[in-house]
Amino acid sequence: MSPRITRINPDDLHPTAGYSHVTVVEAGRTAHLAGLVPLDRAEALVGAGSLDAQIDQVAANALVALAAVGAGPEDVVRSVIYVCGDETDPLGAAWRRLTDSVIGPAFTTASTLLGVTRLGYSGQLVEVDLTAALP
What's the pTM? Predict the structure, then answer.
């Protein structure tokens, strides 16, 4: 963990599922990534009907976007995860798949997981919004 990023879980707040309640970043530049979606370079949806396949594509896209600004998952300071559906089990499964993915360290920071009814592309099941503190 970088000394410029501090993750805090106050004792008077509930335990978390791996994320931090508060993330503090020392002054510096940040990158705000557009919502990362499960599309390939040709703008084709990857993994139609498969939340796991779509999460894997989103994770791969996130690595590319972070690398473009010289950052990695460990530099993420805020994440918002949107998953189509309102049932607890699929939302929890999405969280676990993301935290076990190649961008897993991104979700140790301040994170929000939301169930939504629809996302921008037909058949899209997941989208991830990231903010990173640049090295």
Answer: 0.87
